[in-house]
Specification:
With 184 residues, the chain is an alpha+beta fold. It has 3 domains: 6-48, no CATH class; 64-133, no CATH class; 144-183. Helix content is 48%, strand content 14%. The protein is built from 9 helices and 3 strands. The chain has helices spanning 6-16, 71-78, 86-92, 100-110, 113-120, 124-133, 144-155, 160-167, 171-183, and strands at 20-28, 31-38, 41-48. A hairpin with a 2-residue loop joins strand 2 (31-38) and strand 3. Helix 7 (144-155) packs across helix 8. InterPro entries: Homeodomain-like_sf (IPR009057), WH-like_DNA-bd_sf (IPR036388).
Length: 184
């Protein structure tokens, strides 16, 4: 394993341009790990914090990954009200998926729990649980147009994975659509 000098690492990060930080986590006192994407390559490294040139510490971090409240603190805060609006959740620093209206609108806009997870950083399981509480289905329901596209592409001889990739849906959904058609 190649271990770059601090100067080489600083130079590489400065020149990176298209570097996207995926996750930063705390290992121990003054040590962090960083996962990033640079030009399609996944980079993972640990760093020791010796000096902080500038920075601010937020009063209320929003996610556990950024050092937010412990789960039981969130549960206790949520029990204080029967229902929460998006704005109340933002002010309290709580996850937005506890507002059923926000969850429905975001799911309709992005199309899946996975897309919400990628966009907002919430866990897929927490989103699915909140969706159940809000009366939403966990399984995706595709329009008749998408189902017809699936059938046409499978008839053309494409694999379930290829069809899923082309339409942006899981291959298991392709299989479910085809199996439902065969039962009818």
């Amino acid at each position: 394993m190649l271990i770059p000098s601090p100067e080489d690492l600083a130079h590489a990060l400065d020149d990176a341009g298209s570097l996207q930080i995926i996750r930063i986590g705390h290992l121990e006192k003054r040590k962090i790990y960083v996962t990033a994407d640079w030009q399609g390559q996944r980079l993972e490294f640990t760093a020791s914090i010796t000096e902080v040139a500038q920075g601010t510490i937020p009063q209320k971090p929003r996610s556990r990954a950024l050092g937010a409240q412990k789960p039981w603190d969130v549960s206790n805060a949520l029990r204080q009200r029967d229902s929460w609006t998006e704005e109340q959740l933002r002010v309290a620093g709580l996850p937005l998926y506890h507002d059923p209206d926000w969850l429905r609108a975001t799911h309709a806009r992005l199309g899946s729990w996975y897309a919400i997870e990628r966009t907002y950083g919430y866990s897929n399981q927490a989103l699915a649980d909140a969706g159940k509480r809000a009366g939403m289905s966990i399984r995706p329901h595709h329009s008749e147009e998408v189902k017809q596209q699936v059938r046409d592409l499978v008839r053309q001889g494409k694999s379930y994975r290829a069809v899923g990739h082309e339409l942006g849906i899981p291959h298991s959904s392709v299989r479910r659509i085809i199996n439902a058609q065969q039962k009818d």
